[in-house]
Specification:
Elements (H helix, E strand, L loop, with lengths): L1 H8 L15 H28 L6 H16 L8 H8 L8 H32 L14 H14 L20 H12 L5 H17 L1 H14 L5 H10 L11 E4 L10 H20 L7 E2 L3 E2 L11 E4 L6 E4 L5 E6 L2 E6 L1 E2 L2 E2 L2 H13 L19 H14 L1 H8 L4 E4 L11 H13 L12 E5 L5 E5 L6 H19 L19 E2 L6 H19 L1 E8 L4 H6 L4 H17 L6 E5 L8 E4 L4 H11 L38 E3 L8 E7 L3 E9 L7 H29 L23 E5 L1
Organism: Monodon monoceros
Subcellular location: Membrane
InterPro entries: Carn_acyl_trans, CAT-like_dom_sf, Cho/carn_acyl_trans, Cho/carn_acyl_trans_2, CPT_N
Length: 750
């Protein structure tokens, strides 16, 4: 993913002769601007909350409080303890006939002050409660009395009617870790992959950094954490994503797949109609904050800030850095088919078009016989070009074809009606899944508008997919939207017996508007060069997707192990067998426990992991010679309630993937498909003589079986020591399943 690409490309400027860092006016200005942006976002959200109902009290609660005060006053009771009389004295005297009006105004002012004080108190109390993290250290399935009390208080102070942004003003801010701990953990993470000489040199640089530079840099971060909402997230967005000049295709964007085993309808226009309708239903719920906030392990709310830019969002290229453009609303989608662009309206005066009406409009586009204009077919390849190149060309394009460009960039999202089929086939399941992944990750290099927040791809056989731009949010956000879309379009909207959307067409709707591009001659060469670069990049990607069905999450949990840690150890073993060495490993993890948190890095190639791998490869060691500690992490399940895997076991998604972070590395994504299947997405570059996605896939499968057999043997020896039944299990006796339920993806980069 993009953060891993930037980490690979980053080269520290610190040398052994580095001097002390001096106070920097530009740095202070950046901190000031960051805080200013935070406060603007706070004010915008406050106004939106005011319009939709303020949490934890709605305007109705103010009316109830005011009515209660008026009733008490009528009964000659003074709940204000004399404060309302003092307020009346401060109000202007409008004469005797307005005496009652002064009383009502005094009661309203007192009710407002009391209402605001109660809201503030509840927010502070909830923020203090959400700052407790002791529940993270609880053993799985066990909960201490302290944690139970904490959970009960959180539920009480959270209120009854939760909305998407209910917790935003109560989430704690992300703390700045001590620089000493940061340096210590950094040295621990690089120790397994450095020689003694290189590690000594790195440790000496770290000590010099602590002595000369760390204190002032740490002060900058502390200052920013006090002034802005989050000390790192906006800089992360800017320097990791928006300042990157690489192509978005493969290097940054990622993909998500459809149901693995079924396609609800083979009718391309019908699948597009239902999917677009479901996506816009999600947007409607998002605008009304009707989506429930995500609770980690059902207890701890996560930050919802990233949801704000799912729709109506485009990444605009710049010469030095890009910026994100987000519109409050958009009532159309941009559609690409056979080299032509269309503007398809999604609403009428009466509201959102029905799925059948949308199907009709998509079918009109599919039936349109008009050819693409010269160079129009490959125009979108510019969005796959290096960002500075695309920024310069876009200036000319905006001058010559402003209306068409605005229709695409101002759309709710981008839809690509592909002319080829995709998805799992019985004839060649392995190759078909690999081709499906490649089509979603790169396409043909000119049939995706990579700048849009996401592009919906609808293949000719009705298969769906998603290509997602990374800067605006992380994978769990788009994954949440995608789960809702698949469940809604299939189980709620549904299809007729002949595969069409339910309902009736609307023949009164105008034809989708064909977009016309007046492309100047100087852009033609840029399009050709961009297409050549996109095809080279696309052709260099080796994608491999395989469902591992020998066992799944339930088998791992049976041994009281973290499923994610189990997979990470298997990946370390597989990579060592593939390359004969260890390397720094990037595993993404979220920081959404904190306000405006995004993502962080788990460095899973630890000394303990390396020792484990060496022991697995040492033929002289037996299973019971050492005790191995596995680090644990939790893979959050999102909307499993939307999918009835018992009644519809074939309706499972195989997740998604992304490109490799390094020219000689791998990108590995995996998804726990319920309890019994794990699907892996592997990518590498064909130009590298060191990598092979299929070879690594075989190593992963072997490593999973070997690690599982190891723990089974360990449990057998443990039972023998306790005098229990020691009927052993071998690698050949592992359970084999082929179906499971939906769970989110965890990503790893080597």
């Amino acid at each position: 993913m993009a953060e891993a690409h930037q980490a690979v490309g980053f080269r520290p400027s610190l040398t052994s002769d580095a001097g002390e860092v001096e106070l920097s006016a530009p740095m202070l200005q950046e901190i000031y601007l960051s805080g200013l942006r935070s406060w603007k976002r706070h004010l915008s959200r406050f106004w939106n909350d005011f319009l939709t109902g303020v949490f934890p009290a709605s305007p109705l609660s103010w009316l109830f409080l005011f009515s209660a005060i008026q009733l008490a006053w009528f009964l000659q009771l003074d709940p204000s303890l004399g404060l309302m009389e003092k307020i009346k004295e401060l109000l202007p005297d409008w004469g005797g006939q307005h005496h009652r009006l002064r009383g009502v105004l005094a009661a309203a002012l007192f009710a407002s002050c009391l209402w605001g004080a109660l809201i503030f108190t509840l927010h502070v109390a909830l923020r203090l409660l959400l700052s407790y993290h002791g529940w993270l250290l609880q053993p799985h399935g066990a909960m201490s009395s302290r944690t139970k009390t904490w959970l009960a208080l959180v539920r009480i102070f959270s209120g009854r009617h939760l909305m998407l942004f209910s917790y935003q003003r109560s989430l704690p801010r992300q703390p700045v870790p001590s620089v000493q701990d940061t340096v210590r953990k950094y040295l621990e993470s690089v120790r397994p992959v450095l020689s003694d000489e290189d590690f000594d040199w790195t440790a000496a640089l770290a000590r010099e950094f602590l002595r000369l530079q760390a204190s002032l840099l740490q002060w900058y971060l502390q200052l920013k954490s006090w002034w802005a909402s989050n000390y790192v997230s906006d800089w992360w967005e800017e320097f990791v994503y928006l300042r990157s000049r690489n192509s978005l295709m493969v290097n940054s964007n990622y993909y998500m797949m459809d149901f693995l085993y079924v396609t609800p309808t083979p009718v391309q226009a019908a699948r597009a109609g239902n999917a677009v309708h479901a996506l816009l239903l999600y947007r409607h719920r998002l605008n009304r904050q009707e989506i429930l906030p995500t609770l980690l392990m059902g207890m701890r709310p996560l930050c919802s800030a990233q949801y704000e830019k799912i729709f109506n969002t485009t990444r605009i290229p710049g010469v030095h850095k890009d910026h994100i453009r987000h519109l409050r609303d958009s009532r159309h989608v941009a559609v690409f088919h056979r080299g032509r662009f269309f503007r398809l309206g999604t609403h009428t005066q009466s509201g959102l078009l029905s799925p059948r009406a949308l199907e009709q409009q998509f079918q009109r586009i599919l039936d349109d016989p008009s050819p693409a204009c010269p160079h129009e077919e490959h125009l979108a390849a510019l969005t796959a070009a290096p960002r500075d190149v695309w920024a310069q060309v876009r200036r000319s394009l905006k001058t010559q074809a402003q209306e068409a460009l605005e229709a695409v960039e101002g759309a709710a999202f981008f839809v690509s009606l592909d002319s080829e089929p995709a998805g799992l086939t019985r004839e060649d399941p392995a190759a078909s899944l690999d081709a499906y992944a490649h089509a979603l990750l790169a396409g043909r290099g000119h049939d995706r508008w990579f700048d849009k927040s996401f592009s919906l791809i609808v293949f000719s056989n009705g298969k769906l997919g998603l290509s997602v731009e990374h800067s605006w949010a992380d994978c769990p956000i788009s994954g949440h939207m995608w789960e809702f879309t698949l469940a809604t379009e299939c189980f709620q909207l549904g299809y007729t017996a002949d595969g069409h959307c339910k309902g009736h067409p609307d023949l009164s709707l105008p034809q989708p508007q064909r977009l016309h591009w007046d492309l100047p001659d100087k852009i033609h060469l840029s399009i050709s060069l961009a297409l050549r670069g996109a095809k080279t990049l696309s052709g260099n990607i080796d994608c491999h997707v395989f469902p591992f069905s020998h066992f799944g999450k339930s088998f791992i949990k049976r041994w009281h192990l973290s499923s994610d840690s189990f997979i990470q150890m298997a990946l370390q073993l597989a990579y060592f067998r593939d390359r004969g060495q260890f390397c720094l490993t990037y595993e993404s993890t979220m920081t959404r426990l904190f306000l405006e948190g995004r993502t962080e890095t788990v460095r899973s190639c630890t000394r303990e992991a390396c020792n484990f791998v060496r022991a697995m490869e040492d033929k002289e060691k037996t299973v019971h010679s050492e005790q191995w500690q596995l680090a644990t992490s939790q893979t959050a399940v999102q909307q499993i309630h939307l999918f009835d895997v018992h009644s519809y076991p074939a309706y499972v998604s195989s997740g998604g993937g992304f490109g490799p972070a390094d020219d000689h590395g791998y990108g590995v994504s995996y998804i726990f498909m319920g309890d019994d299947v794990i699907t892996f997405h592997i990518s590498s570059k064909k130009s590298s003589t060191r990598t092979d996605s299929h070879r690594l896939g075989q190593h992963i499968e072997d490593a999973l079986l070997d690690v599982a057999a190891l723990f089974q043997e360990g449990q057998r020896l443990k039972r023998r020591g306790l005098g229990e039944d020691d009927s052993g299990h071998s690698r050949d006796s592992l359970p084999c399943h082929t179906r499971g339920s939906r769970a989110p993806t965890t990503a790893t980069n080597f």
